Amino acid sequence: MAKTLPKTDVVIVGVGWAGGIIAAELTKGGLNVVGLERGRERKTEDYYMVHDELRYGSRYDLMQDLSKETITFRSTEKIRALPMRQYGSFLLGEGLGGSGVHWNGQTFRFLPYDFEIRSKTIERYGKNKIPADMSIQDWGITYDQLEPYYDKFEKTAGISGETNPLGGKRSADYPTPPMLKTPAITKFIDAASKLNLHPYMMPSANLSQTYTNPDGVSRAACQYCGYCERFGCEYGAKADPVVTVIPVANKTGKFEIRTHSNVRRILHKGGKATGVLYTDVTTGEEIEQPADIVVVTSYVFNNVRLLLQSGIGKPYNPATGTGVIGKNYAYQVIKGNAAGFFEEEQFNNFAGAGSLGVNLDDYNGDNFDHSDLKFIHGGSISLSQTGQRPIANNPVPPDSPSWGSDFKKNSLKYANRVLAVGGQGSSMSFKHHFLDLDPTFKDAFGDPLIRITFDFEEQDRQLAVFLANKSAEIVKQMGAKTINQLKELGPYEITTYQSTHNTGGVIIGASPDTSAVNSYCQMWDMDNVFVVGASAFPHNSGYNPTGTVGALAYRTAEGIMTYRNKGGLLV
């Protein structure tokens, strides 16, 4: 029998960016909050002098143990899903801070078009532009409504950047200047400008200078060591929940973090959540934590899985198009790439930072005419210098042999003579892409795994080649002698890393008929449950998702405080 603990005002499931933001805001507002994190505690000191590519980059030390819990995958409903036994397409963070510890720090705002994508597409191109099986929908919130929360997140994290000339209007500049321009970045800017494009420095959570945020948290500037992605930052220069929002919540004395606590059910009665049931993974003990409000802020897959296991919300049925939990799973098209091989110039590709780079949005959203194109939306194009660590990187021209003396010769020659320009494409939702519980495979506790049904569509294939061609034009203008670019996008491959940008499943919207949560990420079906994260995205944009997750978290925190005082569904 489970042990029952004293009741708290709010219990948070998963203490990453969204959970940390909400904990900080609610405790500052006077609420008592318990944060449950199934992984271990993390702190900056864990990463002092630990530039260990093998441990973190290749063996995924910060990631979820797939032998205890994983996902299953199938490309269509016609085949049986199988478990992902080793990491490939995406990386699932675990531990205090979640994926906010091992991210690169690329912190974009979605375009105004994204939030009204269906209505704006129909307005410009007509209904026939949207394929019958594409399930995109407006978000029930506009960019202008979300903009103040973007601003708040950027000030908390100290985002370094410059204004996107093709982005939405801003209420303030970035709190810190953009990162330094390297020779490679300058070469991209010059080439893109000659092509009449609009490059701008990538918004970065890697601080360009020492910064103190509005909560009084001070952090040092980035050292450009090149160990961001898949690594924790030893300087605290990369904004993550552990060095920004979690200390603020802790300082109030109203926040209790319990690590090694795997939440398995949301408990509910009479249409209201009453708390959660979790297992202490160090002892195996089952524990009930009663709470007035439950906030689910774990990763996309776990948000969906927890709701389905708890019987909250109507599961999505792809055959009828009814239901909402698991609906509109989307990914990212990181395949519009072109690598340029330079004969004379050398670049320091081993130094860098997770969000050191330059970006342009001329082919993102609806910033260009799609009338004669067989896809909607688009993607950002960038050159980033994240640090080409030696184990995982060995670029050679496409006509090089894969072994032998010539391979070695080219490996040495081009180690610092290759620059990659790539498109980060959007991912549109389709009726037959969804998440549900696997009927066969279970985790270490006997609970069903989450199942992904997904494959690239003609939309994705057209978009990937388009972005690759545009990237190649820039690389050619930069002066590369040899260009290796994507020619064709094949089926989705879960064994090859692309991005950790999974979205959807508990989507935001204006109606309970088509969405799971309202614009405050409050569940339509259970008003004291809030579900925050990229699981709320009805589709995925041509950007990294974290900036939008942060903005939604701040809006949700505001909504929870209102709900605490007034109750009912928020409008």
TrEMBL record:
Q: Does the keyword Flavoprotein apply?
A: yes
Q: Which residues form the Glucose-methanol-choline oxidoreductase C-terminal domain?
A: 439-553
The molecule here is called: Gluconate 2-dehydrogenase (Acceptor)
Q: Name the Pfam families for this protein.
A: GMC_oxred_C, GMC_oxred_N
Keyword Repeat present in the record's keywords: the answer is: no
Q: Give UniProt keywords alphabetically.
A: FAD, Flavoprotein, Oxidoreductase
The segment(s) forming the Glucose-methanol-choline oxidoreductase N-terminal domain are 220-330
Family that this chain belongs to: Belongs to the GMC oxidoreductase family.
InterPro entries named among the record's database cross-references: FAD/NAD-bd_sf, GMC_OxRdtase_N, GMC_OxRtase_C
EC annotation? 1.1.99.3
| EC class of the enzyme, as a word | oxidoreductase
